[in-house]
Write a structure and sequence with these properties.
By secondary structure, this protein is of the alpha+beta class. The chain is about 30% helix and about 30% strand. Strand 3 and strand 4 form a beta hairpin. It is globular, with a radius of gyration of 12 Å.
Length: about 90
């Protein structure tokens, strides 16, 4: 998996076995329809090297990356308004 290096990207670190991560599905789908920020899911089991690169220890974890640099992160379930605020 390649993380977009241009512009602003919202990464969601997730896993198939994570209940709170699965519960975020409708929120992240709505986020994608209401924001022009690129959204990428990173499965920590399948993409462990990316999770290690960003130092992810808890999921769900949302990381905003802009031009390949981390800007901000939030751990735990987030509402749509929280995600939209995160990428401002």
């Amino acid at each position: 998996m390649e993380i977009s290096k241009k512009g602003k990207v919202l990464l969601q670190f997730t896993a198939d076995w994570c209940g709170p991560c699965r519960a975020m599905k409708s929120v992240t789908e709505e986020f994608q329809s209401k924001s022009d920020v690129t959204f990428q899911k990173v499965n920590v089991d399948k993409e462990s090297s990316i999770a290690q690169k960003y130092g992810v220890r808890s999921i769900p974890c949302f990381v905003v990356v802009e031009d390949d640099k981390e800007k901000v992160r939030k751990i735990g379930s987030q509402s749509l308004s929280q995600l939209l605020e995160l990428v401002k």
